[in-house]
Automatic annotation (TrEMBL):
Organism ancestry: Bacteria, Bacillati, Chloroflexota, Ktedonobacteria, Ktedonobacterales
Domain VOC: 4-133, 166-306
Family annotation (PANTHER family): BLL2707 PROTEIN (PTHR40265), GLYOXALASE-LIKE DOMAIN-CONTAINING PROTEIN (PTHR40265:SF1)
Record's signal peptide: none
SUPFAM superfamilies in the cross-refs: Glyoxalase/Bleomycin resistance protein/Dihydroxybiphenyl dioxygenase (SSF54593)
Protein name: VOC domain-containing protein
Pfam family, one: Glyoxalase_3
Length: 306
């Protein structure tokens, strides 16, 4: 069964600087991480509820995937997101039975700086590139609090000064909403919502939502209302009109923002203000806060309070 959003991958060119930005400026406490034995990459981990953010960098370009190098050439930002499975072999088989090519499940592992290992099983959709338009599936070698403990570097995950309590959603920008909805439904076996306007989020786009019943998390597919904008004329950041169209033209179908639930949105604003982090605040139709990508290693982040 596909249970929710396992983690979100953010590519950075300087892992130490990115760690400082997320930990100190954004108030998202960084804990675990280490070196991948293959692929030429290293990471740091931010555990938020049952999901985590992965800050990843290329240490050895000669070992890294070409798609990763090409994406990094366009700047820091979202690489992909990952879907959690509690039965990865049967979930992978079900995807194959729907006519989709998969690679896996196959094993992976990470070694921490103090020599500890954690592992997982992974299945890729169509190709094994980390950077692509589809998320991969993952099942860790531990669950629940033990999984969170290992992810945080074999310690209790720290609380976040920003007040983040869970990852609520990811948004994937697409060219054709109807076509992409049918494609996602076929691949992952999830049921889509009816299309709805992005007015609630202040975005000039139409949305479709896929929900995970166990985690109450969502994947949003979003299509800009207009895609005629030239990339060089695109506004600097979401949710400015036209910014989404510029993002799609520059990076193609890919994750464009994530939404974090915070305990107190007012307190989160105070934290960001005290650390001089620019954001856009939206009071209506529902209170939301957009952290600008330029101040979050290329990753646009929405904050909201339940």
């Amino acid at each position: 069964m596909l249970t929710g959003l396992d983690h979100i991958i953010i590519g950075v060119d300087d892992l130490e600087r990115a760690t400082s930005i997320f930990n100190d400026s954004l108030g998202l406490a960084v804990s675990g991480g280490g070196e991948h034995p293959t692929g030429g990459t290293a990471n740091r981990i931010i555990v938020i509820g049952d999901t985590y953010l992965e800050l990843i960098t290329v240490r050895k370009p000669e070992e890294a995937q070409q798609s990763m190098l090409e994406r990094m050439a366009k700047g820091n930002g979202y690489f992909n997101y990952v879907i959690a499975s509690n039965r990865i072999h049967s979930d992978s088989e079900a995807i194959q039975q729907r006519g989709i090519s998969v690679i896996g499940p196959y094993a992976g592992e990470l070694k921490s700086s103090d020599g500890k290992y954690r592992g997982w099983m992974r299945t890729d959709i169509e190709r094994s590139d980390l950077v692509q338009r589809y998320p991969f599936l993952i099942q860790h070698d531990s669950t629940g609090e033990e999984r969170r403990f290992r992810l945080a570097g074999w310690q209790t995950p720290p609380a976040h000064p920003l007040g983040a309590t869970r990852v609520y959603s990811v948004a994937v920008v697409v060219q054709d909403l109807e076509e992409a909805t049918a494609r996602y439904q076929r691949i992952f076996g999830l049921n889509p919502s009816e299309p709805f306007s992005g007015q609630e989020f202040g975005v000039d786009a139409n949305y479709v939502s896929f929900s995970f019943s166990e985690s109450r998390q969502r994947i949003f597919l979003i299509a800009p209302l207009s895609t005629t904008l030239e990339p060089e004329d695109a506004p600097a950041h979401l949710p400015m009109p036209g910014a989404l169209a510029g993002y799609l033209q520059r990076l193609g179908e890919s994750i464009c923002y994530m939404t974090l639930e915070v305990a107190d949105l007012t307190e989160a604003r105070h934290y960001l203000d005290s650390h001089h982090v620019p954001y856009t605040y939206q009071a209506k139709p529902r209170p939301l806060l957009w952290i600008h990508s330029a101040h979050a290693c290329g990753a646009t982040i929405i904050l909201y309070q339940q």
